[in-house]
Amino acid sequence: HTRCTKGISFCLPVQSPLLSVSLTLAMIDADVEYTFHCYDHCPFGNRVAFLMDHFGIKYKKVVYGYGSGALPKDCEGEGYDGELNPRKLTGKKQLPVLEGPEVPTAPGAVGMPESLEICSFLIARHGLV
Question: Can you give the residue ranges of the GST N-terminal domain (predicted)?
Answer without folding.
Answer: 32-129
